[in-house]
Design a protein that fits this description.
Layout lengths: L18 H15 L30 E9 L5 E2 L2 E2 H14 L4 E12 L4 H16 L5 E9 L7 E11 L13 E4 L5 H9 L17 H9 L6 E5 L5 H13 L2 E5 L7 H10 L13 E4 L4 H10 L7 E7 L6 E4 L5 E3 L13
Length: 351
């Protein structure tokens, strides 16, 4: 049952647990998300609308369960290259992916402002659904709340993800001699969001890189019999600079990066120069830092480049013991400097 013509917006009753909420779930949410319910192998899934979900463990399951959660407050909710729905799916799937975990189940909770257009909600759920379809992972449970107008800005999403890792990969396993790889261009998401913000009034060709990266990373884990992948991380908030500093600190190693080797699109470089914001400090939503034993670097690069999302992958640096806990940048003008941990992401509400 779809709402009458007059009803084009969410009302507080749509989050109140009664008939109207049931209708909203039946016509807008469930049909968009139930494509993969059979992936849940007969367990109690989303469309059961029970108090909880059950998850049937895959028969071949071995290793560790990996659990992650993320809240998404991005502004604007629709941006070049994606929207809050795709971001919520990719953000959670990618955190599992860089732990070496195959996603097996997701949750989706929405906090929506009264007056939010149904049409926008449909677009967001469609976008979430198409992102999780790329990875073939079901949403097994969810929640909808509606807040009075003004109490929340449009829509916020929370997503929890459960995965299985044969061997969980931490972000702290770096060893001197390891090679540092990036799976693609840096700075796209943060700079696209900045360009899209009205206050800058800039029109550029920038697009967010938001994408679930499990399909690109999975072949690495299949071929990782020698356990040559030592560490991984997705450079989201705070960008590449924050992620590398965190990895160096946690492992008490030094990471040396060659600036000219970092893949970057020209419009990202151009806009960052114009705004005075480092592209190394803004979020990426479809990239990973992969640290591997030196003898595995070339094969890892080859595997990454085989997937379209990894077409621009590159070896960008090396792990040393020169300055434990620090990141060094070999700059394009021939100098060397520390790449410091940023105070925060220069772009608020980036994800
Ligand atoms: Mg992460």
């Amino acid at each position: 049952m779809s709402p009458s013509k007059k009803e084009t917006q969410i009302t507080q009753l749509h989050g109140a647990g009664g008939e109207l909420m049931g209708e909203l779930l039946e016509w807008l949410i469930l049909p968009r998300l139930d494509f993969a319910q059979d992936k849940n192998l007969g367990a109690i899934g989303l469309s059961a609308l029970d108090d909880g979900a059950t998850i049937a463990l895959p028969e071949e399951a071995e290793g560790k369960l990996v659990l992650t959660t993320d809240s998404h407050v991005v502004q604007p909710i629709f941006f070049p290259g994606g929207d809050i729905g795709r971001l919520a799916a990719a953000g959670t799937i990618n955190d599992l992916s860089v732990m070496g975990a195959r996603p097996i189940a997701l949750t989706l909770a929405a906090i929506i402002e009264e007056g939010f257009p149904f049409a926008d909600l449909e677009r967001i759920i469609d976008s979430f659904a198409s992102a999780i379809e790329e990875v073939d992972v079901p949403v097994v449970c969810g929640d909808t709340k509606v807040m009075p107008a003004g109490d929340v800005d449009g829509i916020l999403l929370n997503t929890t993800g459960l995965g299985i890792a044969k061997r969980a990969i931490s972000d702290a396993g770096l060893r001197p001699g390891d090679r540092v790889l990036l799976t693609g261009t840096i700075g796209d998401h943060g700079m696209a969001l900045l360009a899209a913000r009205e206050e800058f009034n800039l029109s550029t060709t920038l697009e967010s890189d938001v994408a679930p990266i499990w399909p690109m990373l999975a072949p690495l884990f299949e071929s990782d019999e020698g356990e040559s992948i030592h560490a991984m991380k997705d450079p989201t908030r705070g960008g590449l600079a924050a992620a590398l500093n965190e990895m160096a600190r946690k492992s008490t190693t030094c990471i040396e990066i060659v600036e000219s080797a970092i893949p970057m699109r020209d419009p990202v470089r151009g806009l960052s120069e114009l705004l005075g914001i480092s592209p190394l400090e803004v979020a990426n939503e479809g990239k990973a830092i992969v640290v591997v034993a030196p003898e595995a670097a070339d094969e890892t690069l080859r595997l990454l480049r085989e997937h379209p999302l990894g077409a621009d992958a590159a070896i960008v640096g090396i792990v040393t013991d020169e300055y434990p806990g620090r990141v060094i940048l070999d700059t394009e003008v021939g100098g060397r400097r520390f790449l410091d941990m940023p105070l925060g992401d220069p772009v608020p509400r980036i994800c």
